[in-house]
Specification:
By secondary structure, the chain is mainly alpha-helical. It has a single domain, classed as ABC transporter involved in vitamin B12 uptake, BtuC (Orthogonal Bundle), CATH 1.10.3470. Helix content is about 70%, strand content about 0%. The radius of gyration is 20 Å and the shape is globular. The protein starts with a helix and ends in a 13-residue tail after the last helix.
Length: about 300
Amino acid sequence: MESYALLIAATLNAGTVLAIAALGLLINEKAGIVNLGAEGMMLCAAIAGFAAVVHSGNDWVGFAAGMGTGALLAAIFGVLVIWLNTNQYATGLALSLFGAGFSAFAGIQYVQEKLPTRPSFAFPGLGDIPLLGPAVFRQHPMVYVAIALTVGLIWFLDRSRSGLVLRSVGESPESAHALGYKVRLIRLGAVVAGGALCGLAGAYLSIIYTPLWVEGMVAGKGWIALALTTFATWRPARVLLGAYLFGGVTMLQFHLQGTGVEVASQFLNMLPYVATVAVLALISRNPAWIRINMPASLGKPFYPGS
């Protein structure tokens, strides 16, 4: 019973990193921008957040530093692809490479640093419920923030005027421009918001999930978050469920090892990425389904007045 509770708790913890990052990328793509730089942004945010906590002793200062770092890098990316019309895919890949190199350089002095002891969290009363309490009600507040973000984003995209404008920019920027909306500024706002969430995910990874700094510690989670948006067909609720699915696959390897299942560790380490490839392959069998749900102008540059 206890092992299952630990597995569920670890799944929620691991899924939170993917969910926050994927929700940020979803905002980008709803506005028509593909940002392949999530891995680099998360790495830079991870070291920024970790360093901020080392010097301040406050986790929330670290989260703010991570969000600021992600937003700054996303803003640079946004200016390049929205105003200078650089290729979105090439610019995103360059951002990932830059983030990997810069974070490794900036993080050299923090490799041996340790974060201060943090308090445990639990809902009074609920945290003592057998199985459910340890599994669900003793999580870090950021786990519940990820769920709240999902609910908020569903409302924003489906019920608010601003969300409708954002979706219209992703579907037909020419029509939105003709109606008087500032397409470039809206896209930049979406890119910066998405970058801030990727930064928050990176900071959560180094501050709460590990908590330590190691070069390359994001280890492909940015790419999995990017794949999640397609897996979820650009719907926030499915992003959250997909994040927990991949989080569970990631944690399953440790659960199997703990229960004495003799499987090569290399094979278990492959599981999250094999699952990613398998899911994308299954989804790709129905291109029409993807086209129906995908923003029509995703990845396409916009030239005002053309």
